[in-house]
Every structure is written in structure tokens, then in C-alpha cells.
Design brief:
By secondary structure, the chain is mainly α. The protein contains three helices and no strands.
Length: 76
């Protein structure tokens, strides 16, 4: 998170892009999200709602082309 724009190439060069590296990065991201929003002492609906909103947004983006074509069809 503290990477400057001119240091981006060196930072990306130090990342592990093997399948195990990518899986461990996804696992670390999941653990950070879970510990920050889900696994809290006084939990609310915020973390689950954020996950649900993200799912709805991604689903809409995946289906946007189909939805766009349905707008112009005539049903009669």
C-alpha cells in the first residue's frame, strides 16, 4: 500500500507470480478481509453486506452485454 509510482516496477519484480504465490496472496487477502470485517467482537452486517454488494456488482458487469441487448428488443 505504500508503493510509490516510480518504485512500482521493482515492487512487482519482487512478487511471486507462481501458482502457489498467487494462491497464497488470495489466501492472505481473504484472511485480512475476514479478520477486519467478519471476525470482530461487535459484529454487524457491514462486512457481509459489502461482500453481497460486490457479488451483485460483479454479476451485473458479467451480464451487462446481455442486459444491454434486451433493452432494445420489442415485445409485442
Amino acid at each position: 500500500m505504500d508503493v510509490k509510482l516510480n518504485e512500482l516496477g521493482a515492487w512487482l519484480g519482487g512478487r511471486d507470480f507462481t501458482p502457489n504465490g498467487i494462491l497464497s496472496a488470495i489466501r492472505r487477502g481473504h484472511d485480512r478481509y475476514y479478520n477486519k470485517y467478519i471476525n470482530v467482537k461487535k459484529g454487524g452486517i457491514g462486512g457481509v453486506a459489502m461482500l453481497l454488494v460486490g457479488y451483485v456488482a460483479i454479476s451485473y458487469l458479467w451480464e451487462y452485454d446481455h442486459i444491454k441487448h434486451d433493452r432494445w428488443r420489442k415485445y409485442h
